[in-house]
Write a structure and sequence with these properties.
The chain is an alpha/beta fold and 622 residues long. It is built from 26 helices and 17 strands. The radius of gyration is 28 Å and the shape is globular.
Length: 622
């Protein structure tokens, strides 16, 4: 096998620390596996003293399999594993832990839900809220933050502190540790016991780490202890592909590596073996706008022949129809559907294209759980209002919407399984202001009954005051109201084609059924990949579409500071560099009747003149 000089230099690196900057498609896995072989066959290193770490079990298993194929063996004493697997091995020997002591991910959610039921914070999106809280708990532990000085992004401090302490208490009661505790306990053990640390330093003479840009602070500190004093630390990664700050990853650790190890060798794997030069060059122009990065110049191994297509559409529906046509045309030209990827900033963005793909019966698989819009709690509120307007008198339906917005109606007022608004007014007959509110509700329901779903939602938003309720709730959850309005806007637009509620409800049932069938059936068949940019990392396709490339979507509207914006740019860079041959970058001129400008990243990728051409009728090809 022939290697580029930079790959060969990395493979044959001797002792001491080394920083390997591996651009997209530069063969980093090949470099790691061949370096391990070189250590064994050329430098006569004992294989049992080599440790290779990556971030997921799947990646570690794949790395091990490739190494075994390379060596022509069925097993190896070289250790391949995740950070958690390696650290747990240390704890297992020191504290006699076994698998029964580990809190499994599904059990983790069950545990925090038990604490949630005790604390009872006023949240509507329970599953999403708890997932965010668990991420914050991981950040507190992984960054060694004093809880007293931590300010939650998702709820008031007293709520977060109660959830955190309750979760920790349940862990202790059950005698369990979670994945974050593995890191923390290992760090504490190695700091407190120099004898144990020395034994592991002797065990692992050479440490190689893949995807180093995703490391967090506590992982790094433990690895530094293990690698000392010889510091045969071979780290491989790409600071331009660091996209997991929300999980606690610290890209600045990689950037600071040369300061921590001034004698470290720096090697750039500068050749992209995946993408055509047109794509490599444009992506490089994009990511150069980040200031906090290693400066680097990348080139493509392949010759010219790639293409970037940029185009603006009037609205998401037009965009979706055109994409489906183009996918079918690519297939007719002989490109397998499996070689096509549709990339979105969040898992909520693909709903429209998923409906189009289902309608046209094109095979596709979703790498992320695309949430069903109609199962969102906001959709539930709106549909419940409409069901009541059309005759439902179920107690559960009224309890759901009666104080959205606030009407100050107490649960105790609903004494029967079926609600009679007249009796409800009698319950409050000594409070004229409450009777007025209920009379207004009766009027609003009569008005809603006469309207199309689209008009009814508009009435609920503006006249009934549902938007005001969402603003209040957003304040409690420490989020921007626009995040909730997005869901409402999407639901509002989805209702437009339907003349009445039964027609819309029929569509909702059919769509929900088809979506479930797709998740259980078509996903196994492969087909067009529908993915978030995050989930597309590490993958590649002949044809890639970056869709909805608008400001507020990418970069995401929550990206306020410089660090957030640079991470958003890295994410767009990752998306663009998934393309081998064809990269389509599409955006819309409006979303839900609101003008939305093209993303700044598109301008950085292809230039302002190309963007102006793309705004024209034909779009532009580069």
């Amino acid at each position: 096998m022939s290697f580029h000089p930079s790959q060969l230099e990395a493979i044959r690196w001797g002792t001491g620390p080394a920083l390997i900057l591996a651009g997209p498609g530069s063969g980093k896995t090949t470099v790691i596996t061949h370096r391990v072989r070189a250590l064994i066959t050329e430098r006569r290193v004992d294989p049992s003293r080599i440790l290779v770490i990556t971030f997921t079990k799947a990646a570690a298993d794949e790395m091990k399999e490739r190494f075994l194929r390379l060596m022509g063996e069925e097993r190896t004493p070289v250790s391949f594993g995740t950070f958690h697997a390696v650290f747990f091995k240390i704890l297992k020997i020191a504290y006699h832990y076994n698998g029964s002591h580990i809190l499994r991910p599904e059990k983790r959610m069950e545990l925090i839900r038990q604490v949630f039921d005790q604390v009872r914070p006023q949240v509507e999106d329970e599953a999403e809220f708890l997932s965010e809280i668990l991420n914050e708990i991981s950040r507190v532990k992984g960054d060694r933050v004093d809880l007293a000085h931590y300010y939650s992004n998702h709820c008031p401090e007293e709520v977060f502190h109660a959830l955190y302490r309750g979760y920790e208490e349940k862990l202790r009661e059950a005698g369990l540790i979670d994945f974050d505790d593995m890191l923390r306990l290992c760090d504490e053990l190695l700091q407190a016991r120099p004898d144990i640390l020395a034994a592991w330093q002797k065990k692992y003479q050479y440490i190689l780490i893949d995807e180093f840009q995703d490391i967090n602070r506590i992982q790094y500190e433990v690895i530094r202890m293990l690698a000392a004093p010889e510091n045969n630390l071979f780290i491989v990664g790409d600071d331009d592909q660091s996209i997991y700050r929300f999980r606690g990853a610290k890209p600045e650790i990689m950037l600071g590596f040369p300061k921590d190890y001034p004698d470290a060798k720096k090697i750039l794997l500068s050749v992209n073996y995946r993408s055509r030069p047109e794509i490599v060059e444009a992506a490089g122009q994009l990511v150069m706008h980040n200031e906090t990065r290693f400066r680097k110049s990348l080139s493509a191994a392949a010759g010219p022949g790639g293409r970037i297509v940029a185009k603006a559409f009037a609205n998401p529906a037009d965009e979706g129809r055109q994409v489906v046509k183009e996918l079918q045309e690519y297939h007719r030209q002989g490109i397998p559907y499996e070689e096509m990827g549709l990339l979105f900033r969040t898992n909520q963005n693909p709903r429209g294209i998923v409906e189009q793909l289902l309608r046209m019966n094109l095979p596709f698989s979703m790498r992320d759980m695309v949430p069903n819009l109609y199962e969102h709690w906001i959709s539930g509120d709106i549909l419940t209002y409409l069901l009541i307007a059309h005759g439902s008198n179920r107690r559960g339906d009224f309890l759901r919407i009666i104080n959205r917005p606030k009407r100050y109606v107490h649960r105790a007022a609903f004494t029967e399984p079926e609600v009679d608004l007249q009796k409800l007014k009698e319950f409050y007959q000594d409070k004229d202001w409450m009777v007025d509110k209920l009379t207004r509700l009766e009027y609003d329901l009569r008005m809603l009954q006469k309207m199309t779903p689209f008009a009814a939602i508009n009435y609920l938003r503006k006249s009934v005051g549902y938007e005001e309720y969402l603003k209040e709730y957003a304040g409690y959850r420490r989020m921007q109201p626009e995040e909730l309005f997005e869901v409402l806007d999407e639901l509002h637009e989805a209702s437009r084609p339907f003349r009445n509620l039964p027609e819309w409800m029929g569509h909702i049932r059919d769509y929900t059924k088809e979506l479930k069938e797709q998740k259980t059936g078509r996903e196994k068949q492969g087909g067009i990949a529908v993915s978030t940019m995050h989930s597309a990392k590490g993958l590649e396709y002949q044809v890639v579409y970056i869709l909805d490339a608008n400001e507020g979507i990418t970069p995401y509207k929550k990206a306020a500071g410089k660090a957030d914006l640079e991470e958003e740019r890295r994410l767009f860079y990752v998306a663009a560099t998934r393309a081998k041959q064809m990269l389509h970058v599409y955006w819309t001129k409006e979303h839900y009747n609101k003008e939305l400008p093209v993303s700044r990243f598109v301008t950085e990728l292809i230039g302002s003149e190309a963007v102006r051409q793309a705004e024209g009728k034909r779009g532009t090809k580069i």
